[in-house]
Structure formats: C-alpha cells, structure tokens
Amino acid sequence: MNLGIFFDPLREEVVAPPAAPTALAAYIAPFVHTFPDWRTADLAIIGLDDWRGTAAGAPTHHGADAVRQRFYHLQRGVRPAKLVDLGNLRPGLTLEDTYLRLREIVATLLEHNTVAILLGGGPDLDYGQFLAYETLDRPISFASVDARVDMAEYDCAPAEEAHLRRMIMHDPNFLFNFAQLGHQQYLVAPDVLAALEKLHFETMRLGAIRTDVRQAEPLLRQADFVTFDVAALRWTEAPGYYPANSFGLSSEEAAQLAWYAGHNDQLTSFGLYGYRPDHDAHGLAAGTLATMLWYFVEGFYHRWGEMDFQSRRFIRYAVGLPGTPAKLVFYKAKRTEKWWLEVESLADQDIKRIVPCSYDDYIRAAQGDLPNRWILTQALLG
Question: Cα-flanking dihedrals φ and ψ of residue 66, to 5°?
Fold first, then answer.
C-alpha cells in the first residue's frame, strides 16, 4: 500500500538537523522530499491537525510540528532507534473520512509490525486509531489517560466529549478491556464512573497515580494501544490545551506513564492528542510532550518479549485459597520482576487469560483474598 498519498511532507525548518550528531534527528527518516521506507522501521510518527471534533476549533499553528522541533533535538537513548516520520496526515473531506484514513493507515502499520505514534489533533481522533484494531479479528484492550472521561450522551456534544462512548458502544464489539487513568473526579459525572464499573472496566484517578505511579503500570501493560490527552497534564507544566486546569499529572509522572506504555510488549500504537501551540508561548508544553515521546521510544527499546509464560524467563507461583477458586497462579518475570495473573473462567475452564498484575495482587492472594483484578477479569470472561 502506498501510504505516501495520505501525507503532506514536512517543512525543512521543522526537521533542521541539530548541531549534535548524537541527537535523535540523526536516527529519524522524515518525509521532506522522499517518503520514507516505513516497512523497515520499528516506529512511525504521524502528525495530525484535524480539529473538527472540538468545540474550540483549530489552533493557528501545527502542534505536531512544534513538538517535532523539540523531539528531534533530544539526545538518542542507549540503543539506536529505527524511526520514520511520515509527515502530516491530510484531513479527509469530513471528520469521518479522517477517522477512516487513520483506520487504514494504522491497520497497515500493524500488519507490518511498525508501531504508530499519533501526534496532535483533537482528542477524538483516537477513534480512528481504535478502528484499526477491528482488522485484528480478536478482542483488544486499551487505556486512556485523560483528566475527563469523554462519554457524553447528549446529541449536541462535540466529538471530543463523546469519542470514548463511541468506542465502547462500537458494533461489532471487539473490546475486551478498557482502563481509564488520571481522571479528576470533580470533572467526571458520577454516573459515568458507575457505568465503567458496571462494565467491569478499571479506573485509576489522578490521586491514586500521584500516591504511587507504579500501580498504573499493569493497566498500561495490558493495553494494545494507549491514548493520552494533553489535558491530563498540569497546566503550569504543559500550557498547551484549553480550558486551563491547575491540577493534573506532573511532567515526571507523564513521562513515567509514557515509559510504561512503550515498554509494553503487546502495545502497537500510542496517541498523544489535544496539544494547542497557541497557548504555549514559551514552548514549555512542546518540550514536555517531546520528552514524553522520548521516554516512550526508550521504553520500546527496553522491551524483553516477556510473553512466553512457559519459558525459563518466568517463575510460576501457585497460591491456595479457602473458597472458589481453590488456587490462583501467578507468573513473575525474572529479569524485570513484573507479575501476571492467570484467570480461568469459572463458566468454561477452556477459557483462560493471563493478565498483568502487581506484586500487591500476589500478596493479597497469599493472605487469602481474591485480587480485584481477578474479579474484574472473571466478569469480563463471562
């Protein structure tokens, strides 16, 4: 497939080479004159600039380009990166056309094992990212990091306020699990959180992440893709969205979440949406987002392929319980010390799923209590 027909090339000043030869720019093949060979790349950056799904409309400057200029000048990590920058996606005639273009592009990248990094545009563009996974013909999981939970039901709601609901209600339903992270409870209607609980989806509010960011790692490790709304960040550290919010994730916490996402062996796309450069007079938000992308890429190149639970990379722990089930099985990766939990359906023993968990889940089981992650997964298995 010729992906180049969907993209506009980057301006030369956006990708101007930095003075340092060790900067990331030396390891990225951007679309300036010739469309890059994305089939040989590990990761592909896609710039987005469609804001028709937002109430505030489009900013006057291209957010993805502003982040690129900061990202390209960062130093490369420990390992050389194989990145391509496909340029900026041409919006469709309608917003729905843009969603379908994203679907086709991300699905093509998935087919060739190239991880898509979606940068810029309205938060609702993650719907196109979501649609790409319909082509996998299997249940998928995803995680969203956002200050709000975008599940508005009223007819006149802009797409940016209802896109999550549209994904959850999509027919055919290929969604197994969803995790909402970083929301601020005073910005979310109680019935929305109640609906997620009824659907057996997991949530982790901002305060819980601030208490221990490590508890977010299993939720991100379970995701096939992650979406991140810039509005989840504290305004003073990332003044690049509207309306402003005094509360939110710190830059360090956001970078840690990006690392967790990149390090997830099964994650195949990452979306960073909602950045408005018009509000970012000094480029602080652009620098924060560029650093988040750096941590995502660095996390990707620290993956270990920890998915063969029968290999010697894992230690298996069996924990006896007094009720039903009588036993739980945990797996611990020797190298990274990450934990997984085996959940066997009570209704059909042939249905089994191994889900990420934490050491705390293991300790809880060892004390005779069922971990909440087992209960939620059991409910999803039916």
Answer: -65, -40
